[in-house]
Structures are given as C-alpha cells and as structure tokens.
C-alpha cells in the first residue's frame, strides 16, 4: 500500500482508488476515494491500475464509505440521482447483492438544506 486517498489518511493499493476523471466524478462526485496527487500521464495511469470507471461493486463500496464518514456528507441532488439511477440499472443482474448492501446500513440521501449547488438549480 503506497498511494494516498482523497478521503482517508491511510495508504491504499492503486487498484483500490479511482482516477479523478469525468466518468467517475459524474457518478461519485468529489466524495470518492481518488488517488492523490492526480496523475497526468495516461501511460502511467494504465500501468499503475487506478480505476477509471465505476462498477456496481464500486458504487456499493463507496456507499459504505459514505456511511462511515465522520463529517457530514454533501452532494448535489443531480449527482445522487445519477448514482441511484446507475445502481438501479445494474440491479437487474445483481439484485440480491444490491439489496444486501442497502439493508446493511443507512443509504438514503437527504439534501443538505443550507447548501444549494448550481447543478440543482
């Protein structure tokens, strides 16, 4: 384990972290375990093995990370709608896995009332 994460203080293997790109950020927003610092070389990126897309397992794992966060979780309604739509679409092939994960703890997103993001207007 040798790569820093944007969410946690502990080090991770590269395969456990996301590369901060549009494909990932559009679903997980800024509250995802991104590799720090951001790598600019695409060759190095593929060689090291950072995640550049989100799978159902990834989305469910990030939900579990969000459940454990000590600070309040903030995200736009648009971002959470995209994430829940992604999970719903993927649920067709892995219904039992999704239900088990969602029943294991809180997962309902409630908008933070004092913050309005430009995406939600």
UniProtKB/TrEMBL annotation:
<dbReference type="GO" id="GO:0009793">
    <property type="term" value="P:embryo development ending in seed dormancy"/>
</dbReference>
<dbReference type="InterPro" id="IPR052957">
    <property type="entry name" value="Auxin_embryo_med"/>
</dbReference>
<dbReference type="GO" id="GO:0010305">
    <property type="term" value="P:leaf vascular tissue pattern formation"/>
</dbReference>
<protein>
    <submittedName>
        <fullName>Uncharacterized protein</fullName>
    </submittedName>
</protein>
<dbReference type="GO" id="GO:0005634">
    <property type="term" value="C:nucleus"/>
</dbReference>
<dbReference type="GO" id="GO:0048364">
    <property type="term" value="P:root development"/>
</dbReference>
